[in-house]
Design goal:
single chain, alpha+beta, Hypothetical protein af1432, Beta Polymerase, domain 2, 4-stranded mixed β-sheet, 27 helices, kinase activity, NT_sf
Length: 701
C-alpha cells in the first residue's frame, strides 16, 4: 500500500530501525484484522488508520503512539481484544488503543448520553497519557477530510461536534495546524453555502490585494533590517472560519473585513521581539486597544507571541505576530513539541504542567457531574479559549474565560474558597460577587466559615469548574436536608396515628423499603421531603394490619427554623414570617412549601388533604425573612430617599422596589428583610411618621 510505504519512509528519518519494524508489524496485524472491511468511500478500511498515523508522524510522535494509531479501531471494530494487543505490542500501546476506543458495546438511552460517556472515557485515559487525545484528534481530522461521502445530516452533526469539542481541545493543547484545519472543515460542512460564498469572495480579494500585500511584506522586511535583526517574515491569509466569525460577531459584510491578511515575524530571542515591535510601530501606527503581550503573560496552552494591529497603507489594518523560533514550534505543535524536539525537553515542563492542571480540573468536573448533558455543558464551557488574566493577592496570574466573575475566581483558587465566599475586593475596592472581571484585575476573596453556595450564582458563573462545584454542593446539601425533613414529616404522621416512631421494627422498615421500590430508608425520606410520597400514606403502610390505628392524638407540628435550606421553601405569594399562622403544603418535586394560613392560594379543601402538614415556628430564630409592603405617597422629590432611610433606621434591608407614578401620588412596593412580625411592625410604625405617606400596608397575597 503506497500510503503505508510513505509512513515508513517518513518515520525512518527520526525513529530507530527496531521502531520501524514494530510499525510494519502493527500495519500487518491491522491489515489482517480489518480484512474485508471497507470505508463508505469504498477504500479498504486499513487506509484510515494509516492516514491517522501519517498525520501524527508529522508531529514526530514516538513509536508506541504511531503503533496505537495503526491499531486504534481494532478493538472497536474487530474481535481482537485489548489483551491480545498487550501481548503482541506491549501494555503502553494497549492502554492507548483502549483509551481511544469508543464505548460501542454499551447501550445508552440517548445519543447525548453516549457522547458524554465516550468523552468521559477519553478524558480519563487522556489524564493518564495525553497521547490518547493526540490519536483521537488525528482520527477526527482524517474523518473530517473524508466527510464528503456521508449524508448531509450526518455531515452537519459530525461537523458541529468537531467545532464544539475537538477543535477547542486541539487549541487548548496548542496544536495550531490541527486546530485550524478542524475549524475550516467544520465550517465547510456545517454551513456549506456560506463556505462556498466566502471561498469565492476570498479568491477575488486575493487577486486584488496580492500587490498590496507583497509591498507591505517588502517594507516590513526592510524596516527590520535597519535594526540589524535576523528575521523571517511571512504573509498569511486569515482562515475562512476566522473571517466568518468576525463577520457574525461584528455584523460586517465581507468587504468590511479588511484585515484578511496577517504577517508573522520570527526572530532569534525575546529582546529582539520587542525591538521588532518598536520598529514596526514606528513604520505603521498601532491601533489603540489592539496590542496583546502573550510573551509576558502566556496563554493557558503556553502560546507566546506579541500581537499588534497596525494601520497600514490605504487604511488597511495589518495584523502582526512577533515570536521566537522556539515559541513558533510550541505555537504550531503544542504539547506534541515534547516529542518533536526532545533535545529541548526541559523547556516544555511548564507547558505539560499547565496541561496536567487543566486535565485535573476537567476530572473534577467529570467526577461531580452526574448528568450527561450537565457534563457536556461543563466540558464545552472549559474548552473555549479565554483572554482574561487576573491576579491573586500574592501576584499569581490566573487565566479565566471572558465573562468570568469573582465567584469563578474563587473556585479557580480552590473549591473550599468558592463554597465559603461571601464578598470580593477587586483592585482594593469592595465589589459584588457577580462582578465581571477584566484583565489586570487584582482580586481578593472574603470567606466565612459557615457560608455556602447560593443557587443564584448559577445564573452568572462562566466556568465549568465553578458551575460543577456549585451544583454538586447544592445537590449534596439538599439531599442531607431532605433526609432530615422527610424523617420529621414521617414521625409527625406516625404520631398523629398514636404510634411511637421508635416502636417501628427493622423488619417493618425493610418490608416498606422493598415494597416502595427505593434503595434505602434515606431515599424514602428524601421522596417524602420532595413531595413524591405522602407521609400519611407511608405511615399507614409502615403499621401492620393488626395494629390499631387511632387518630385520638393530635398531630405534633413540624417545627420550622428557617435554616432547613432547599428542603423547605417559603411561598412567594404570601411571604410568611415568624409570628404568622402558617401551614405546610407538600408539592411534588418541590418539597415542603410554607404558606400563611390565610393565603388565598390555598383552598379550604386543600387544607384538609393529606399533602397539607401542621407546622409551627421554632423559638430563637436568628435568620431574616422576606416581607412585602405597599406604600402610597405624595409624589414629591426625595420621598424615596426618606422612605429608604427610615427602613434602614429600623435595621431592615430592601431586597426589591417597584414604583409607579401618577400625577400626584406614587405607588411603591418594597420587599424587605425582617426578623419577624414584631420587626415588620416596627418598620411600618417608623414609616407612618413620614408626612408624605398616605397609606401603608403589608402584602399578604
Amino acid at each position: 500500500m503506497p500510503e503505508a510505504d510513505f509512513l515508513f519512509s517518513e518515520t525512518s528519518k527520526y525513529l530507530k530501525p527496531e521502531d520501524i519494524i514494530q510499525l510494519k508489524n502493527a500495519y500487518s496485524f491491522g491489515l489482517g484484522a480489518h480484512s474485508g472491511q471497507f470505508r463508505k468511500s469504498g477504500e479498504p478500511y486499513i487506509s484510515h488508520p494509516v492516514a491517522v498515523a501519517r498525520i501524527l508522524s508529522k508531529l514526530h510522535l514516538d513509536a508506541p503512539t504511531l503503533t496505537a494509531a495503526l491499531l486504534h479501531d481494532v478493538v472497536e471494530d474487530t474481535d481482537i481484544s485489548k489483551a491480545e494487543i498487550s501481548e503482541r505490542f506491549g501494555e503502553p500501546v494497549a492502554e492507548l488503543v483502549d483509551g481511544v476506543s469508543k464505548l460501542a458495546k454499551i447501550q445508552f438511552q440517548t445519543q447525548e448520553e453516549a457522547q458524554a460517556e465516550n468523552f468521559r472515557k477519553m478524558l480519563l485515559a487522556m489524564a493518564r497519557d495525553v497521547r490518547v487525545i493526540l490519536i483521537k484528534l488525528a482520527d477526527r481530522l482524517h474523518n473530517m477530510q473524508t466527510l464528503e461521502v456521508m449524508l448531509p445530516a450526518k455531515q452537519r452533526s459530525i461537523a458541529r461536534e468537531t467545532l464544539e469539542i475537538y477543535a477547542p481541545i486541539a487549541h487548548r493543547l496548542g496544536l495550531n495546524n490541527i486546530y485550524q484545519e478542524l475549524q475550516e472543515l467544520g465550517f465547510k460542512y456545517s454551513y456549506p453555502m456560506r463556505y462556498k460564498v466566502l471561498v469565492k469572495a476570498t479568491k477575488a480579494a486575493r487577486g486584488n490585494r496580492r500587490e498590496v500585500v507583497g509591498k507591505i511584506l517588502e517594507t516590513i522586511s526592510l524596516k527590520l533590517k535597519e535594526a540589524h535583526l535576523e528575521t523571517e517574515v511571512t504573509g498569511r491569509e486569515k482562515h475562512l472560519y476566522s473571517i466568518y466569525n468576525k463577520m457574525v460577531e461584528k455584523h460586517l459584510s465581507f468587504s468590511e473585513v479588511l484585515d484578511i491578511y496577517g504577517f508573522r515575524v520570527i526572530v532569534k530571542d525575546i529582546p529582539s521581539c520587542y525591538i521588532a515591535l518598536g520598529m514596526l510601530h514606528s513604520l505603521y501606527k498601532p491601533i489603540p486597544g489592539k496590542f496583546k503581550d502573550y510573551i509576558a503573560i502566556p496563554k493557558n496552552n503556553d502560546y507566546q507571541s506579541l500581537h499588534s494591529t497596525l494601520l497600514g497603507p490605504f487604511g488597511i489594518p495589518i495584523e502582526i505576530q512577533i515570536r521566537t523560533a522556539e515559541m513558533h514550534r510550541i505555537a504550531e505543535n503544542g504539547v506534541a513539541s515534547h516529542w518533536l524536539y526532545k533535545n529541548l525537553d526541559g523547556n516544555f515542563d511548564e507547558l505539560h504542567l499547565k496541561t496536567s492542571q487543566w486535565l485535573q480540573n476537567l476530572m473534577e468536573t467529570l467526577s461531580s457531574s452526574t448528568d450527561s448533558s450537565e457534563f457536556l455543558e461543563h466540558l464545552k464551557i472549559d474548552l473555549f479559549p479565554s483572554d482574561v488574566f487576573v491576579f491573586t493577592p500574592q501576584g499569581k496570574i490566573l487565566t479565566l474565560p471572558r465573562g468570568s466573575t469573582a465567584v469563578d475566581f474563587a473556585y479557580a483558587v480552590h473549591s473550599d474558597v468558592g463554597n465559603c465566599c461571601v464578598a470580593a475586593k477587586i483592585n482594593g475596592e469592595n465589589a459584588p460577587l457577580r462582578t465581571k472581571l477584566k484583565s489586570g484585575d487584582r482580586i481578593e476573596i472574603v470567606t466565612a466559615p459557615y457560608a455556602k453556595p447560593n443557587p443564584s450564582w448559577l445564573g452568572y458563573v462562566a466556568t465549568g469548574r465553578a458551575r460543577s462545584h456549585i451544583r454538586h454542593f447544592l445537590k449534596t446539601i439538599q439531599y442531607d436536608e431532605s433526609i432530615k425533613l422527610g424523617e420529621r414529616m414521617l414521625n409527625q404522621a406516625l404520631t398523629s396515628f398514636n404510634i411511637d416512631p421508635d416502636s417501628i421494627t427493622a423488619i417493618q422498615w425493610d418490608k416498606l423499603v422493598r415494597d416502595s421500590g427505593v434503595k434505602s430508608r434515606e431515599e424514602l425520606f428524601t421522596e417524602m421531603a420532595l413531595g413524591k410520597q405522602l407521609p400519611a400514606i407511608v405511615a399507614k403502610r409502615l403499621t401492620t394490619p393488626a395494629e390499631s390505628v387511632s387518630h385520638e392524638k393530635a398531630a405534633t407540628p413540624i417545627t420550622i427554623m428557617g435554616t432547613e435550606g432547599l428542603a423547605v421553601q417559603f411561598a412567594k405569594c404570601c411571604r410568611p414570617i415568624p409570628g404568622d399562622a402558617i401551614v405546610g403544603l407538600i408539592k411534588k418535586d418541590s418539597g415542603l412549601i410554607i404558606h400563611m394560613l390565610n393565603c388565598g392560594n390555598i383552598s379550604h379543601s386543600a387544607k384538609s388533604q393529606e399533602n397539607c402538614l401542621n407546622v409551627t415556628w421554632g423559638k430563637d430564630i436568628t435568620r431574616t425573612f422576606e416581607a412585602a409592603i405597599k406604600i402610597v405617597a405624595v409624589n414629591k422629590q426625595g420621598v424615596l430617599a426618606r422612605v429608604a432611610a427610615e427602613i434602614a433606621k429600623a435595621d431592615s434591608n430592601i431586597d426589591d422596589i417597584v414604583m409607579e407614578s401618577e400625577s400626584n401620588y406614587m405607588h411603591m412596593r418594597f420587599v424587605l428583610q425582617v426578623n419577624n412580625r414584631l420587626h415588620l411592625s416596627q418598620v411600618i410604625r417608623g414609616l407612618r411618621h413620614l408626612r408624605e405617606i398616605s397609606t401603608i400596608s403589608r402584602i399578604e397575597d
